[in-house]
Design goal:
The structure holds 2 protein chains of 2 kinds. Chain A contains 16 helices and 10 strands. By secondary structure, chain A is of the alpha/beta class. The chains are: A alpha/beta, B alpha/beta.
Amino acid sequence: MAITGSNSSASTLETEPASGRLVIGIPTGPAAEDYRGLAEALADPTVRPTCTVVVARPASTGTAREPAAPDDGLVEVRYMPRQQDVLEMPYHGLACRARAIHAIFAEAQAGGAAGCIIVDPRTTHPEGSIESFWRALSAHDADFVGPVYRRHPFSGGLIHGILAPFFSALYGIRLQYPVAPHFACSSRLMAMVLADPIWDAGAANVGIDWWLATAAAAGSLRVAQTSVAVTLRDDSPLVDLSTTIAQLLGFAFTDLERRVQVWQRIRGSRDVVCVGDAGESHAAPNIDAAAFVESFRCDYRDLREVWEEVLPPMAIMQWRRLTTMSQDGFRVADPVWARTIYDFAMGHRLRVIPRANLLRSLTPLYLAWLASFVLEMQGASTEALDARLARLRSAFEQEKPYLISQWRWPERFKPVKLRR
Amino acid sequence: MRLRGSAEHPQWYKDAVIYQLHVRSFADSNADGIGDFPGLLQRLDYLAELGVTCLWLLPFFVSPLRDDGYDVADYRQVNPCYGTLEDFRALLQAAHDRAMQVIIELALNHTSDQHPWFQRARRAPAGSPERNFYVWSDTDQRFAGTRIIFLDTEPSNWTWDAEAGAFYWHRFFSHQPDLNYGNPLVMREMLGVVDFWLTMGVDGLRLDAVPYLAEREGTSCENLPETHEVIRTVRRHIDAHYANRMLLAEANQLPTDVRAYFGNGDECHMAYHFPLMPRLFIGIHQEDREPIADALAQTPAIPDECQWALFLRNHDELTLEMVTEDERDYMYLAYTADPEARLNLGIRRRLAPLLGNDRRRIELMTALLFSLPGTPIIYYGDEIGMGDNILLGDRHGVRTPMQWSPGANAGFSTAPAEKLFSPVIDDPVYSFQAVNVAAQEADGASLLHWMRNMVALRKLFHVFGGGTVEMLHPENRKVFAHVRRHGEDVILCVANLSRVPQPVVLELQEFAGATPVEMLGYTSFPTIGTTPYPLTLGAYGYYWFELQRFDT
């Protein structure tokens, strides 16, 4: 039974937190959708007697925080939106997400909460979807719990094709969704991050989810994940793909510079505990790979000059070769893909061209990778898909020395158009 | 409550990379031919990009400048030719904004003879507290066992003052009378000076000429217990009122004597390792590791919170006071083909000219500097291989304007060339038209880029600042190898001091199973086994290896 505003009938809390209350946080922005039903359902004391639902809403006045008195386990906190947060729509559609999460964490910490689960009011929450985060927090003493959605890998290609293997290679933790609207944090992690100036950084709004996952991984805290049955919206993205790529990778690449002392010291990766049954993945979405291939061929002519700012001659040749390939042979080799991402990370670091322009230019390459992935894995079983993604992750790890070598010695970064 | 400095960590100095510069020489913003604080401020991003984490500013106080500012006439005012106190505050803030600490000079030992304290003292009645700010005598025979430091210019440590009708004591130039720490009023005044700068936010103080603070008949007047008591008093005062600050001792002494300046962690946080520096030069010239290994072997242990300050060159002559006579003779023969390069007991040359402008040797020496236990100090201009001018007299030849560009005055100043405080370097090899920041910025293979990368790499590994060191003793003495450890980090450093390739076999069985990953290129070398580990190094080649274990 999905929690979408109606009461959930059964008590599904199998494992109570070790101590203290838990907070379920619902961040909302200036254009908040109706969260009330979800909040009341989650706050039902007959179902979750040890939890408080905290809804973060933008303040309409100059007051930055206006916590309401607890009312049947439901608290509203207000945060002060920044003008810059509402000027650019983030890929996730929540204009003040960082501020809202900060307000929730602050409230959770002030109330001595043992942990906090962030949920997205725009998704359905079937029965048990919240409790699995609790189990991971308490039974596994985790500090950060990421979700594992029952989603076909053809959906969320950015996560599977770039962010997850990138995260795994850098921080050594195989988190399937290092960026997600749902996650849980322990009190320890909240205490660690609340004082960080990141919340006021310009890009925090688009990157706060990535940042929290990396903070946990880089801080040697315990990371777990849990199978979550919520349904993510794949329809009508709020911003175009290029903007999403620019925002997500822009933050992830910037974060690299902050955590250089950590990721350059990590080699290999390890699995993390996954709480709950993964269940059946959703059916494969209908992806028109042929259209992506054609799009890549067209964009190659237009964007090759931009790519030459970051890609070395061999990479340009490999991508050029793809423009002549039939669909049967259209495959982006994993090392080529991994190195391409690393070259873009270096180009971003060295600001070879304006960063947003650079990252947007990755879009056709990403679509080419996605087309290659879809064409290769059409009709594959879940196990085969998992194995394929594991190989991709492994390639990112194998190629990591390529990134480190260039990072430590930027003069080794030798794109076609070398500007030095 | 103690006033905290800008650094997050109390022992920030252990992981620091210090950049030493003279405001006068760095950048001129107002076209008067003299570098100033606004000029330095404009160039701060260059230093941030270089990666240095701490600026050490040579004296910038009001001074007649007869010893480049070490002759202080007012400890609380900025010399107007460098700017104002507000300019200094702005620089301090800007440095802190870039996560850089700032340390300044505290010339404890002496003032200028123009300082009001001295002018008052010479007119005050003998025996009065005012007179006793300095050390006076009716004869120039007191403390007769004390050596003269500036042999080339000073015949005695005493100089007659006609107005006072007495001799005054000075360990350095005669225009720099020594303060008398036997007078409690002197200590009170100096603590006031300490408060003035630390309250403003200065992160550390370099205690200039610190072994000479006290005098006693029948001694060498160096390293006396009374001197250490003065330092402990300063340290107690700082610890009581401030946090995350640092004291750096300039004690050009043997390591066993320098060790005393750390006390039991209750004197200075840092002190220069003077004997190591000349032995690095001897080692690379003799192509033999023993002089270096010997200096390190003779280095005493220091308290955990303390740190050695390491340098290759600085604003003074390459001092040879703390080497043997044979070593001094060798250094003169090896490094001073031109006798003009000699000054006092040292050599007034910059790093690049000393090393024959050989890029490989400059890199090797810098790699050694960065890999040995201590905090490295880079002297301004050495990151681009600046030259010197030994004909400028005293040590002015290594204090010439920073070379920013091939433009007029090396981009240092827009003043007419004849107004510059010093001529720029303009010889055929080191001319500013060839050696300058702009050119090296544009050249990815330049020394500047190399230096930036090495600074960044060193900062990545706390083991260099805080780890232990163990020497290896391979049969081939042309190879210097050592292991640094800190927590789980193990770093192996290997350097070929020779001009030709060298083989070496290292006893690394202790690390069997670990894979040496070359840190500059992140390349894995063959895993270490249970037999000796062979390596080959190119001429003046060096490796830094991270010994990684992949079984986790």
